[in-house]
Automatic annotation (TrEMBL):
This is Mycothiol-dependent maleylpyruvate isomerase metal-binding domain-containing protein. InterPro entries: DinB/YfiT-like (IPR034660), Maleyloyr_isom (IPR017517), MDMPI_metal-binding (IPR024344). NCBIfam families: maleylpyruvate isomerase family mycothiol-dependent enzyme. GO terms for molecular function: metal ion binding. The lineage of its organism: Bacteria, Bacillati, Actinomycetota, Actinomycetes, Mycobacteriales. It comes from Mycobacterium paraffinicum. Residues 10-98 form the Mycothiol-dependent maleylpyruvate isomerase metal-binding domain.
Amino acid sequence: MSKAADALQDNDARLVAFLGTLTRDQWAQPSLCTEWSNHEVLAHLVVGYSATLPSIAAAMLGHRGSFDRTNSSMARALAARRDPHALVDDLAALTRQARGIGRVFPRRLLLGDHVIHQLDITYALGADPSIPAATLAAVLDTEVGIPNPFVPASARARGLNLVATDATWSRPSDGPTVTGEADHLASVLAGRPWALRHLTGSGVSVLAARLQPSR
């Protein structure tokens, strides 16, 4: 098993254990992922581990080829059909044996997706995510090192000198500096402006501008 696969497996185990403690009211609360409740974020994680390419392609036809709208629609539809406790059980089973695209999707990207959504839920609830520094460093490496058309973290990081204060991680650059805890850096690079207030340095304003929607 690869290092990324090991990290994903370990993180998923912690995530499933945490999700199993949430109450009905907590599932209904909004996450830090725009327009999704915590329940819908969980459904998205299950979709990502189980959807087939034909089902995704068919859904995209109904949304004029938009991956983002398809992604949101599939998560909401599953959340409407399955209650959170059933979905936690589904996720636990899928972490042991993924189906569909979950079997072939790069483990580094899945780890990043799961960690970011874990932060979306835990910080929305005021909980401690308890994600190891090494895992967050691996997510940051993926964000700044792998171009991703769906989550343009590498474009947001371009030219910035990024420094984590609580992990052995940095991305040196001659550009303006952004300093903060690894989870806050990862969350902002993934497009979550809520964590900007936890970052310092002359590059924070640059990051904030890059998070603004295109007009």
